[in-house]
Amino acid sequence: MAIIIDGKELSKKIREKLKIECENLEKNNIKPQLAVIMVGDDPASKVYVRNKSKACKEVGVDYVEYLLDKSIKQKELIDLIEKLNNDKNINGILLQSPIPKHLNIEEAFEKIDYRKDVDGFHPMNVGKLALGQDSFVSCTPFGVIKMFEEYDIDLCGKNVVILGRSNIVGRPLIQCCINKNATVTVCHSKTRNTKNITREADVLISAIGKPNFVTEDMVKDGAVVIDVGINRLDDGKIVGDVDYEKVKEKASYITPVPGGVGPMTIAMLINNVIKATKQQNNIK
User: Fold this and answer.
1) Is position 119 annotated as part of the catalytic site?
2) What's residue 164's pLDDT?
3) How far apart are CA 126 and CA 114, in angstroms?
4) Which of 52, 220, 248, 250 is catalytic?
5) Cα radius of gyration (the chain)
6) CA atoms 136, 157, 204, 254: torsion sign
7) Contact at 8 Å (CB) between 138 and 169?
8) pLDDT higher than threshold 80 for residue 93
């Protein structure tokens, strides 16, 4: 029976430490501020943005929201980003994805000042992560690594298999795990014999967005299983990529959905905002 990795409890512990950091910054008249840009009215994005706003306020980070019409042109989006880049009161900038298809999200990410790129998507931060240098790390992979650290799960020399290669989760996770001296294999839509590969994993991380995709016969006895997927079934129930009830009988550690990786993503976002604030004010 697996030990449950409680992301909700861990994120609460991290946010309590971050609140103290915010209080210390306020003694120097410094107030961290995050600007969030949301284009259109995607329902899931609205929920994420609301959760981010609530968490920021609890910790002591000022939060400014820019809600843009879904019909805006690329230039209008870039102009807003440039304005926020030049605003000294704004320490972190986040562009909530997805955005409407007529807009170029890659260009928008590149226009965000990499020193304010608290989502870790700017090519400068992606490159620094690949080189093992200090950078802003994408919040979900960062949250997964924090879970490993908190639960004393050492990745050194372990076989880590990652399902999914998205720019938001899969690719940065590859680098994070390599930086921890793991041996990393990535499976994606073109991978053959996925089941044979996952069975060899000491640590299996799924980030593909397919409900209950990872079944017990895909998991090695005693493996660590991290479920990044968040999927809504037709009956409204939220489930992950992993068949949780069956796989937890086989794994050594497992994350639930909800209450696993999700809360950690928001905690790491706040962490990145405070880190950016300190860097911009030359505070160690």
Assistant:
1) yes
2) 97
3) 10
4) 52
5) 19
6) negative
7) yes
8) yes
The CA-CA-CA angle for residues 212, 215, 218, to 5°, reads 140
- The 3-state secondary structure of the chain reads CCEECCHHHHHHHHHHHHHHHHHHHHHCCCCCEEEEEEECCCHHHHHHHHHHHHHHHHHCCEEEEEEECCCCCHHHHHHHHHHHHCCCCCCEEEECCCCCCCCCHHHHHHHCCCCCECCCCCHHHHHHHHCCCCCCCCHHHHHHHHHHHHCCCCCCCCEEEEECCCCCCHHHHHHHHHHCCCEEEEECCCCCCHHHHHCCCCEEEECCCCCCCECHHHCCCCCEEEECCCEECCCCCEECCECHHHHCCCCCEECCCCCCHHHHHHHHHHHHHHHHHHHHCCCC
Query: Residue 27's pLDDT band (boundaries 50, 70, 90)?
Result: very high
The single residue of 33, 96, 241, 250 carrying the catalytic annotation is 96
Residue 265 has pLDDT above 90, yes or no: yes
Does the active-site annotation cover 116?
no
Active site residue 96: yes
Give 45's pLDDT tier (boundaries 50, 70, 90).
confident
Q: Calculate the CA 241 to chain-centre distance.
A: 16
CA distance 136 to 119: 7
Q: How confident is residue 70, by pLDDT bands cut at 50, 70 and 90? A: very high
Write the CA distances from 143 to 30, 81, 146, integer angstroms: 26, 26, 5
Residues 171, 50, 267, 17, Cα dihedral to 10°? 160
Residue for token digits 């949780």? Answer: 244
Token pair of 127 as six digits: 């490159």
Catalytic residue from among 119, 202, 241, 243: 119
